[in-house]
Amino acid sequence: MHDMSSDDVSKIRIEYSLHSLDEKDVLPDPFSQFDSWWKEVLSASVEEPNAMTLATADKEGRVDARTVLMKGYNGEGFVFFTNYESLKGQHLNDNANCCLLFFWKELERQVRITGVAEKVSEEESREYFLSRPAGSRIGAWASPQSKVVESKEWLEKNYVQYENRFEKEEIVRPPHWGGYRVKPSKIEFWQGRPSRMHDRIIYTLQDDLSWNIQRLAP
To answer: Which of the ends of the chain has fewer CB neighbours closer than 10 A, N or C?
Structure first.
């Protein structure tokens, strides 16, 4: 196996040149701009386009990050679902400030969303939960997400126990499972450009709920 040295890493170069982004051409609100990019992502057949990095911090400010899947967006924010007792759920319970990051390398684009997460309604969580495959619904019961477990075999045994339980009853939503909506205060659109002169357009929410649009240096 080849061990990549720091010198090898420093030589990696990618020249971005597919698109450009100008503040005079973007749409007046970031949700419309996201929707425009989202449609282009879908037409470009990007693999798992709804995958996004979620960064959170605990009460002491220690940061963690992981990939989650966006399951909806509108003018209020961006939605994902998880176990509320997981590490990210604990973080968001203590510190609702968070950041989402989409990276669509096929289009040389990133979207960075800074905001506050709040739980969606129980009805919204229930509706999405019931739309999931049966195996995923059972998994939500069987996995104590982020907790230390004794073995893979223990997890498999726990899954089978819940599988047997739900053979005769509806797989309802666990009380510890549901959605969050990240309500943004800033959304940045990043478009890769040649010579590292990338386009960065940031929308910042104002007190009157309008959006201020500015260009950032790359």
So the answer is: N
